[in-house]
Design a protein that fits this description.
The complex is a heterodimer of chains A (112) and B (116). By secondary structure, chain A is an all-beta fold. Chain A is 0% helix and 56% strand. In chain B, a hairpin with a 2-residue loop joins strand 7 (67-73) and strand 8. Classes of the chains: A mainly beta (112), B mainly beta (116).
């Protein structure tokens, strides 16, 4: 079945710096990759997503890139702010279904 | 965006009792809902797919007789943890897909279950 790996597990950056989180997936037929931000004790919130027919998508300070050949996708956050501190999860949709398999999460700390 | 409401937000129960968690889509119809379990500082693990009007599909390793799922209407799915034990203590989150063409899933706020 689909497997999603995520790195790093923790990431600390200075305010204003960029943060990059990387994920790899196993199912080459997967075609939808969302990223979620989860604050402590709260629900995951979709922050950006990308479909397999595009290589990059940007929304203000957040961007996602997808390399279908290598089966990996990355989240880029620029000009980080303390409120960006949270756990970020990547996910891949299992082909032929609407199930998501989540990565293991990255705890991002933005230091003021 | 679409709203998914989960109830209760937290519950404490005694070992051996059963607990029901509700997941409602408030402003859309959801033919499919998903139940996840999240241990502290860990990822979301898919437990089962809840299909309106039919039996749920469980992931490998998830006991269907312990985690009963009912999806009786297009806006409500319930997860019942039967004969709960302390190891069932976890954060349970549901999600629902809005519409047949929309891939995005919306999450409930989660239910923190503590079994004592």
């Amino acid at each position: 079945g689909e497997n999603v790996e995520q790195h790093p597990s923790t990431l600390s950056v200075q305010e204003g710096d960029s943060a990059v989180i990387k994920c790899t997936y196993s199912d080459s037929a997967s075609n939808y990759f969302p990223w979620y931000k989860q604050e402590l004790g709260k629900r995951p919130q979709l922050i950006i997503d990308i479909r397999s027919n595009v290589g990059e998508k940007k929304d203000q300070r957040i961007a996602v890139t997808l390399n279908k050949t290598a089966k990996h996708f990355s989240l880029h956050i620029t000009e980080t702010q303390p409120e960006d501190s949270a756990v970020y999860f990547c996910a891949a949709r299992v082909s032929g279904t609407y199930k998501y398999i989540f990565g293991t999460g990255t705890r991002l700390k933005v230091l003021a | 965006g679409a709203v998914v409401s989960q109830h209760p937000s937290w519950v404490i129960c005694k070992s051996g009792t059963s607990v029901k968690i509700e997941c409602r889509s408030l402003d859309f119809q959801a033919t499919t809902m998903f139940w996840y379990r999240q241990f502290p500082k860990q990822s979301l693990m898919l437990m089962a797919t809840s299909n309106e009007g039919s039996k749920a599909t469980y992931e490998q390793g998830v006991e269907k007789d312990k985690f009963l799922i009912n999806h009786a209407s297009l806006t409500l799915s319930t997860l019942t943890v039967t004969s709960a034990h302390p190891e069932d203590s976890s954060f349970y989150i549901c999600s629902a897909r809005a519409g047949t063409q929309n891939t995005e899933a919306f999450f409930g706020q989660g239910t923190r279950l503590t079994v004592v």
